[in-house]
Design brief:
Blueprint lengths: L4 H12 L3 H8 L3 E2 L9 E5 L3 H15 L29 H22 L11 E10 L6 E4 L5 E6 L7 E3 L2 E5 L2 E8 L5 E6 L4 E3 L2 E14 L18 H4 L12
Antiparallel strand pairs: 1-2, 2-9, 3-11, 4-10, 5-9, 5-11, 6-11, 7-8, 7-10
Length: 252
Amino acid sequence: GPFAPRLAAAVSAAWEFPSIGTEDAVRTLWEPAIHDAPDLGVYRAGLLTEDGVRLVRQGLDCATSSGVPTRRPNGMNRYGIIVDGGVDGACSFPPLEDFVRELTDRYVRPIGRALFPADVGEGDDSERYAFTIRYEECGDEKLNEHRDASVVTLNVNLNLPDEGYGGSKLYFVDPADRSKRHEMEFAPGMAIIHKGALRHAALPINEGMRQNLVIWLFGDRGEVRIAPYAPHEQLTLVERWRATKENFLPWF
């Protein structure tokens, strides 16, 4: 299948029977991505198998081979595509859009709620914006320090195992000490998840290419909540594993 087996099994169990035990089984698969700053709020896990990466890459190839002019994915990246046929200037390829929709509903949204319970409340993650980015020496070499327009961001490496690259590490700024930058890199199929408000950047790439799928979650009409919720205001465990849309049926 397209998803890492251990994560897929844990997520399926949490959807079927939300409990402290099943949610913890999902949460523990997301380890701190930066070992010298485990409390920074950046987590990583194996998300896509090699077959899953190939599936997404094939969808991207089909979406971009139409020759239809596309809009740059965001104000900072020039190379990549928007994965949403309802957005002007996006590449429309329904199978890829369906995959990203299910990835968001089944994995990203409940996992973001579980990892950041004080930061994601009712409706704060109801909308998504998905796009790909590509770094290479003849295109976008780096990404300057910034915050995302999201409450939660998922970033997954779409390189295949034999597609190595040099440089292009990510760094995250320590909110307690803005002079500290914590660097990390992640392997093909690996995903990281973090709050969009956490400042970060991509350092220059000096060899090969790195391609990623990014999903931003935010509220209605682009609303991004920053203030944390008090414990009594937070979503309950069952609410964290509740579908946002009534017609959503968990899959895989």
